[in-house]
Every structure is written in structure tokens, then in C-alpha cells.
Amino acid sequence: MEQEIGARNVHPAVVILITLGAVFLGFQVVGPMIGFFFALPFYPGSVIEMTESLKNPLSDPGMKVPLFLMQGFGTLFGLILVPMYILKKFHRSVADLFKETIYMQAVLMIGAIVIVFMIVNSVFIEWNQNVTFPSGIEKWAKATEEQLAELTKYLTKFDSTGQMLLAVVVIAVLPAIGEELVFRGIIQRELFRGTNNIHVAIWISAAIFSAIHIQFYGFVPRMLLGALFGYLYYWSGNLWMPIIAHFINNGFTVVAMYLYQQGSVKMDIENAEAAPWSAVLFSAVITTALLYIFKKFYEKRRSVNFSDNTNEDNSTLIP
């Protein structure tokens, strides 16, 4: 109770700024430094050679696994351990965020929602990639985008099934847990506390979530994805729901890329072309229907739980 009262005395903007600053240091500095030492046994050279390769890792095939490990430790430290401490300091026990029941019906609905929404989002992906910015900004944005694209291509050109599984952990499992802890578990909750408007909280946290990736030619589709995760959390009151959705989105992409490289499927998931409008419209209807069913499912569960225990603390149902 004292922690909760203490949190109420700290302005939401302060909590958000502390969170973003601590996450940045943990993800960009401390975590990768720790990961560097764990990655040394997986590099076919000396410490000095690996340090030199970090200046231009894409030219060294032996840097792929070390880069994955450094990124993984960055995510683990900066996006999971640091946010857990902040949650404990400003809110409540981290366990409270994960104590809600996971219903298989909800998981199946989320899987369908995420996959179908990919078709809808393809329109925004294609549109956003063709947006023009003022010349100075556009030059910088394109250079940044190309750098990230080259790094992604390097990391996701899998030489073995083991590398693909490592990528699933680093690209899907850890970010799903970490990014949802930060953007839904902390930032969305703080924005709601500050504005008392859940829709404002969801969309601003989604915009921050997208902006933090520094990929301007993917800003809108990623923001829409963040908003989707935000509403899944709001309607369910269960942080596992956006985590599962996030994992399915990233994990599906990684596995699809691997299968395409193996020649097992013909669909190139990296293709930025929009799906046919007929498919997009149909998918939009299906997505809307599934979201409505998901929302009603949790409204019914909430009603049942409340009637079973009128003294239940339902604060967790409002992110």
C-alpha cells in the first residue's frame, strides 16, 4: 500500500521519463556490455578481434551469434529487469501483472487477430514506405532505415535451425515480454493515470513504442500494432495478452523468413507490397469481429468473477 501511495505522489511524466532513460541505458549500454562477455566463447577469434569487428559487424560472418547474444542481454537487462524494478518501485509487485488467468480461447483469438491484422497492416506498410519528408530529414531517415535493414538482413539470413531458434528467442520472446512491460505495463498505465482517458493513453504509448524503434518508414504500421496491443491489454486487464500477441507477430515473421529461405514457402514476408484490396477489406471485417468477440469475452469473464466474489479487487482490470 505504501508503494502505491508513493507512486501516486510522483507525476506520470516523471515516471515515464525515468523509465525511458533507464531503459535506454540498460538496452544500449549496460546490457550489451554484459552480453559482450557472454558472447566471447561464440566468436572464432580473440577479444581484440571481436572488439574490432563491432565497428563493422556486417563484414564478419562470425559476429552473427555474438550480436544476437548482445542484443538479447540488452533486451533482458534494459527491457525486462530495469522495468521490473521500476514497476516494483512505483506501482506494485510485478507478479500482480501476471497473476491473471490465461484462457485458451483468448490465446486462439489473439493468434487469429494478429495474423489477419497483418493483411490489413500491409496497406499502411506500403503507404508509409512511400511517404516523403523534407530533404534533410528524408536523407537521414533513409540512411538510418538502410542501416537497420542491412543489419536485419544480416541477422535473419539463417545458416541453421539453431540460429533461427536463437532469433526467435532474441527477436520474439524477449522483446514481447520486455516491450510490453515498458509500453503497456508502465507507460500506458502512467498516461492513463495522467490523462484519465484510456484511448489517449493507448495511442500515445503506441506512438512512443513506434518512435523508439527509429524506423520512420515503418512508424504508422508499428504504431497501429502498438495500439492493438494496448487495447488487448485494456480489454483483458491481463498483460499476458499483449505479450502473446507481440510474440506471435514477431515469431511468425522470423519463422516465415526461415521457411522462405529454405524454399518451404513461396511467400516473402519482407515484401512491402500491400495485399489486394479485397483481401484487406475482408481481413479488416474479420479483425473487427474478432476484436469485438475478444472484448465481450473478457466483459463476460469480469462479470462472472465479480458475481463470484463481490469483494474482489478489480483494479487490475483497468491497465
From TrEMBL:
Residues 164-251 form the CAAX prenyl protease 2/Lysostaphin resistance protein A-like domain. The keyword Transmembrane applies. Keywords: Membrane, Transmembrane, Transmembrane helix. One of its GO terms (biological process) is CAAX-box protein maturation. One of its GO terms (molecular function) is endopeptidase activity. The chain crosses the membrane at residues 12-43, 63-86, 106-125, 164-186, 198-219, 239-260, 272-294. The keyword Transmembrane helix applies. This is CAAX prenyl protease 2/Lysostaphin resistance protein A-like domain-containing protein. It comes from Ohtaekwangia koreensis.
